[in-house]
Every structure is written in structure tokens, then in C-alpha cells.
Design brief:
single chain, alpha+beta, six-stranded antiparallel sheet, 10 strands
Length: 422
């Protein structure tokens, strides 16, 4: 049996898990739109997505400019005026808006605490100290169930059994470690340290995050298919812990063997007066103790290898690259919402928001077997911004395809001629 992943039928996602190209192709092959309008609709989709890409590119460049002073991977010079609290606030505001446009959901504090109190299905138990950060934010897109095979030692089962694991198909993590001044204040106020000692401790704390200056740093991380119980694995200050089962196993096997070795060594020492024999007996005891200690280190090494493997295969992007990934995702989601809204307005003519929303959700459920909560307001707002609706109050109507393509071409010509800045 292979691992399988499926979306939850009882959870309505805003995310449309269909590529933009496939969505357009499926709309045209569904025989809903008259054949003579297919080419005009293709032109509409092509021009609209090109215009929206130009707008998204401008927003992305602005976001990159805001993030540059806080990027831990930056290799360009920075003036003292760049790194300001105001710029950091603007960065987070715009970043959270892009996450909203990309249909990410923020993980609540209650869900995060629940996840932190569970042991990973991979057998890796880790902990994280959130006090090391000035801000932590986690967002996910796509809550799904992944079925995997595991041995359940609690039920004394040697055969692997299928279990269901709640995973996040996409996980975004924002981490802002404390800066040097914040660490110094923490050690002085909470640990009652002197200023000199607090400064040394602050420098040591910053090294954990690879920070060597006084500037604020913001880490942006993207992962895929992360089990909810493994959220701690995505933090740089995780501490690997031994599971209770492993502690008992080491205590039974190691403790029994060590106790027996100690007793045997005492017996040998009491029965011999030969110094060489005594040294051999003591050496044997030390070797036995070392083997038991080595088992503990071996177990920790196994956990570290599992952690490294998971992060290697599940990591998608970091920092500046994560911004580009999110912007591309938001652009695709926004385009899909606008195109779906316009397509079904062409079919329905004048209709209400509720009816239009229901028609789109019914189509996606019937075509792809995916229940979802379509963002009808987002789709209509984007059409309104592009002047593609003839009315948008109690009843909504879209302008005809020929007129829509004409208006979009005019807008594109303005962009090309640099008459407007999108």
C-alpha cells in the first residue's frame, strides 16, 4: 500500500487546487460556452492574465524593496536609515495581504499549541522556545489527510497499519528573532544579569540564528506536506528530545546490562589482587558504560537524521525566493477567481452574487470532486477594477466578450506605452 493524500471533504478551502491553464482548458471543453465564443474567451484570458501579471510584478518589486534590509541572505550594502520599524511594519502588512490573496489561512494560537503537544508520527519529538522570537506567524494552504503505514508499538503490533495524518499541503513560516538590544533587555530584566554579561549572552543567542549584527532579521520559509504534529521541525532552534518509549527501552537494556557489569566487576576486584587483572576489569566496566552512552547518542543521531531528511524533502523556498513564490501563487489564485467569475457571468447574464457563487462552487465540485468556499467578492472586485462589469449592485452583469477584449487591449496598450503605471 502506498502513501495517499486527499483533501478533507468536510473542510471548505478557499484555495482552487487546479492550475490556471487547466482551468481555462476545462472551461472551454465543458461545452457551456457557445463554440463561436471560444477564441474570444481565450483572448480574454490571455490579455487579462498579462495585465494582472504586470500589476503583480509591480507589487512584488515593492515587497522585495521592503524586505531587503531584513533579508538574512542579503549581499548588498545597506544604509543606516533603511532598517526602520516603520518599514518592517509595512513589510508585514503587505506580506500578509499577499498571503490572503494566495488563499492562505493563519494557524491560530490554539491549533499551534495543540500541535506542539503531540508527538510526531515519524517518532521525532522536539521542542521549540518561542521566547527567542520577536514575532512568529504560521500560515497554511490546503488541509489534507495523508495515509501512511506505521507500526503501532503501543498495541504490540509488528505489522504496519495505516494511520491518517493531518497535513498542511503548503506551510509558510515567518520568524523574526529578537535583535541584540531585545536580547540584552531580556537578560537584564528577566535573568537579572549585568550589562556586560547580558551583552555576551545576547551575542551567543544571535549566533544560533546566524545573526552577527544589530539589525532586525526576518526569516521566510515555505514547506510542503507538513504533518501538523511536526510544526516544531520548521524552527531553527528546535531541541531534539527522547521519547518516553526510548527512555524506557534504554533504561531496561542499558540499565540492566550496566548493573550486571558493575556487579561482575566488583566480584572480580574482590577476588583478585593482581593489578593488571583489576585494570582489565575496570576497563571492561568503562567499555560497558561507554556502549550504553553510545546508544543514547546513536538514538539522538537517528532523530537528527530524520529531522534533516524531512526538511530536505519538504522545503520549498526561503526568504527572497519565498516572496516570489507567494507572489506567483497569489497572482494565479486571483486570476482564477476573476476568470471563473467572468465566465459564469457570461453564462448566467444578470444574476445575484449568491447565485453566481453557488454556480461556481457547484461546477468545481462536479468537475473536480472538490468542495470549496469560492471567493466571489474577490473575483468580482477584480473585474470591477478592470471595468468589465456593466453593473455591480444587487444584481451583477458582465460586459460582452467583444467589448471586454477591447477594453483590456486599451489597458494593455497604456501599460506598454508607459502612459500608466500599474
Amino acid at each position: 500500500m502506498q502513501n495517499s493524500t486527499h483533501y478533507q471533504a468536510d473542510v471548505l478551502e478557499r484555495f482552487i487546487p487546479i492550475s490556471l491553464d487547466r482551468l481555462i482548458s476545462d472551461l472551454l471543453t465543458a461545452e457551456l460556452l457557445p463554440a463561436e465564443q471560444h477564441n474570444a474567451f481565450k483572448q480574454f484570458c490571455s490579455t487579462y492574465t498579462s495585465l494582472f501579471h504586470a500589476q503583480s510584478h509591480t507589487h512584488l518589486q515593492d515587497l522585495k524593496r521592503l524586505y531587503l534590509p531584513f533579508n538574512p541572505d542579503r549581499d548588498t550594502l545597506m544604509t543606516a536609515q533603511e532598517n526602520t520599524s516603520t518599514q518592517l511594519t509595512h513589510l508585514k502588512e503587505k506580506l500578509y495581504l499577499i498571503l490572503e490573496d494566495a488563499n492562505y489561512e493563519q494557524i491560530s494560537e490554539a491549533d499551534l499549541n495543540e500541535a506542539l503537544n503531540k508527538i510526531s508520527p515519524y517518532g521525532v519529538q522536539v521542542s521549540v522556545d518561542f521566547g527567542d522570537f520577536a514575532e512568529v506567524a504560521l500560515f497554511y494552504r490546503g488541509s489534507a489527510i495523508q495515509q501512511k503505514l506505521y507500526r503501532n508499538w503501543k498495541k504490540l503490533s509488528f505489522k504496519k497499519q495505516p494511520i491518517d495524518i493531518l497535513i498542511y499541503r503548503r506551510l509558510f513560516v515567518l520568524l523574526q528573532p529578537k535583535n541584540r538590544q531585545q536580547w540584552i533587555e531580556h537578560f537584564i530584566n528577566n535573568k537579572k544579569m549585568s550589562v556586560q554579561k547580558a551583552e555576551k549572552k545576547a551575542d551567543a543567542a544571535l549566533k544560533v540564528f546566524g545573526i552577527s549584527n544589530d539589525n532586525d532579521v526576518v526569516y521566510l520559509k515555505l514547506f510542503k506536506d507538513i504533518p501538523r504534529e511536526d510544526l516544531e521541525m520548521q524552527f531553527p532552534n528546535t531541541r531534539i528530545q527522547m521519547r518516553l518509549f526510548d527512555k524506557i527501552k534504554l533504561a531496561v537494556t542499558g540499565g540492566g546490562g550496566t548493573a550486571g557489569g558493575v556487579m561482575a566487576t566488583i566480584g572480580k576486584l574482590s577476588a583478585t589482587i593482581d593489578p593488571i587483572s583489576a585494570l582489565i576489569a575496570i576497563g571492561g566496566l568503562l567499555g560497558l558504560l561507554w556502549r550504553q552512552i553510545a546508544k543514547i547518542f546513536s538514538q539522538r543521531a537517528k532523530y537528527s537524521a530524520m529531522l534533516t531528511k524531512n526538511l530536505y524533502f519538504y522545503s520549498l523556498d526561503n526568504n527572497m525566493g519565498a516572496l516570489t513564490y507567494l507572489a506567483d501563487t497569489a497572482e494565479a489564485e486571483e486570476s482564477k477567481e476573476a476568470i471563473l467569475a467572468y465566465f459564469f457571468l457570461l453564462l448566467a447574464g444578470e444574476t445575484s452574487r449568491a447565485n453566481l457563487d453557488q454556480s461556481i462552487e457547484n461546477y468545481i465540485h462536479e468537475k473536480y470532486a472538490i468542495p470549496m468556499d469560492f471567493e466571489i467578492d474577490d473575483g468580482l472586485d477584480k473585474l470591477q477594477q478592470s471595468n468589465l462589469l456593466s453593473r455591480c449592485d444587487q444584481l451583477i452583469n458582465a460586459i460582452p466578450l467583444v467589448e471586454a477584449n477591447s477594453r483590456l487591449r486599451q489597458q494593455w496598450d497604456q501599460v506598454i506605452d508607459n502612459k500608466v503605471f500599474v
